[in-house]
Amino acid sequence: MWIFTRLDKELKQAIKLLSLGTFLEYFDLFLYAHMAVLLNDLFFPPADTHAKSLLTAFAFCSSFIFRPIGAMLFGYIGDTYGRKITVVITTFMMAITCLIMANAPTYSQIGIAAAWIVTGCRILQGMSSMGEIVGAQLFLTEATPSPVRFPVVGLINVFGDLGATMSIAVGVLATSYGFNWRIAFWIGSAVALIGSFARTTLRESPEFADARKRLQSVATRAKEDITQIKARPFYNEPIAVKTALAYFLIKCSGAVFIYFIFFYATTTFKLVFSYDAHQILLHNFLLGIVGIIAWSTLRTYLSTKIHPLKILTFAWIGISIFIPFLPWLLNYVTAPWQLFLIQSYIILFWPNDLPGVPIFFKNFPVFKRFSTASFLFALAYAVVYTITSFGLIYLVNYLGYWGLLFLMVPVLIGYKYGLNHFIQLEKAAGRYPKLINWDMDW
C-alpha cells in the first residue's frame, strides 16, 4: 500500500522483524492446538468419548489459563524496561518449549508424565505468546504515525493468522503423507531462536523511550531520585475503570467465536459427518485461508480508508443479525459445505479488536499500557476459553445448539457496550467519525 512508502527504513525493518516473529509465535502456539486430534492420543491416556472431549478442552485451555500470569510478568517488564526486551524474551521462550515438545516421549513410553510435560510446555507457550502479540502491536502503535498505524498494526494480525494457518497445513501433511510432526516443532524452534536474536537489533519504541527520557529529565532537574519521581501523579496516572472494562468485554467476544469456529465445530464433523483427523484439519486449513483473506487482510486494508471503529460497528451488526438463526441452521445442516459457509460468515463478521487495536491501546497510560492491555487480553481469553470449552460440552448436551446462545448473546451485548465507550472517547477527542490526518498525531 502506498502509505507504507512514507515510513522510514528503520520502521520498515521493525515491521518486518515483528511480523515474522508473530508468524513464528502463532505457528508454534497453534501447532499443537490444531493437531490435538492427532497428538492427544499420543500424549494422554486412552479414554472414552466424553473423557476425550474433556481432555481436548483441557489441552486447549492449558495454554490460556495461565496467560494472565504471563501478562503480569511481561507487562511489568514491558512497562519498566521496554517493549523491545519483551518481544525478544517471548520469542526465545517459544523456541525452547517447541524444542522440548519436539523431543517429548509419548504416553506409551513414560506414562502420564508425557501429558504433564506437554501441558507444561503449552502453559509456557501461552504465557510467552501473550507478551509477544501485545508487545509487537504496542511497539508499532507507539512507533507509527496516524493513520498508517492502523494497517501497520493490522499486519501483525495478518501474519499471526498466517502462522496459525501454516500450523494447520503441517497437521494436514502429518495425517495424509506421513510427515513427522516432530520435524515441524524442530523447525519452529530453530527459526524462533534465529528470530529472537534478530529482534535484538530493534530500537525501543519512540513513545515509550521519550516518556522514559522525560521522566529522567524531571528527576535530574528536581535533583531527586528516579524512584521518588515515580511516586508522583503524572507517572501513576490512573487507569479508567470503564475503559478497562470496555476493552475486556471486546476481547471476551472474540474468544467465544474463534473457539466455536475452529474447535467446537470439529465435534460436529466427527459425530455427524464421520470426519477423521485429516479431513478436520483440511477443513480448518481452508477456514484459515478464509480468515486471512476475509478477516485480517480485508480489515487491515479497509482501515486505510474507514475509521476502525466504524468497521467494528458494521461487523457487530452483521454477526448480531446472524447469531439468533445459528442454532436453527446447525440443526438443518446436512452437508459439510453448509457448515463451512456458516463458519465463513462468522469469520467475516467476527467481533474482535482488529483494526481498532491502536485506539484501545492509546487510551491507557503509557507507563501502564503494556501491563494493562496484556492482562485484560489474557484474562478475557482465559475466562472465556475455559467457560466456552467446558461449558459448551454440557450446554449443547442439555439444550442442543440453542445452548450456544447462552454464551454468544451475552458477549455480543458486552462487545457493543465496549465499542460504544471507545466511540465516545474518539468523538470527545475529535477523531471520529473520520480518520485523522497523517500529520495529526495523538
Range of helix content: over 70%
Number of strands: 0
Which class in CATH terms? Mainly Alpha
Which architecture per CATH?
Up-down Bundle
How would you explain this protein's 3D organization?
Mean pLDDT is 80; it is low at 438-442. The chain is globular. The protein has helices at residues 9-34, 36-43, 49-65, 67-80, 83-102, 107-110, 113-143, 149-176, 181-198, 206-222, 226-229, 241-271, 277-302, 308-322, 326-331, 336-348, 357-362, 369-399, 405-428. It has 442 residues and is an all-alpha fold. It has one domain: Up-down Bundle (Growth Hormone, Chain: A), CATH 1.20.1250. Helix content is 77%, strand content 0%. The chain has 19 helices and no strands.
Task: Indicate the topology.
Layout: H1 9-34, H2 36-43, H3 49-65, H4 67-80, H5 83-102, H6 107-110, H7 113-143, H8 149-176, H9 181-198, H10 206-222, H11 226-229, H12 241-271, H13 277-302, H14 308-322, H15 326-331, H16 336-348, H17 357-362, H18 369-399, H19 405-428
Helix pairs in contact: 1-5, 1-7, 1-8, 1-9, 3-7, 3-18, 4-5, 4-7, 4-18, 5-7, 5-9, 7-8, 7-18, 8-13, 12-16, 12-18, 12-19, 13-16, 14-19
Protein name: Major facilitator superfamily (MFS) profile domain-containing protein
GO molecular function: transmembrane transporter activity
Subcellular location: Cell membrane
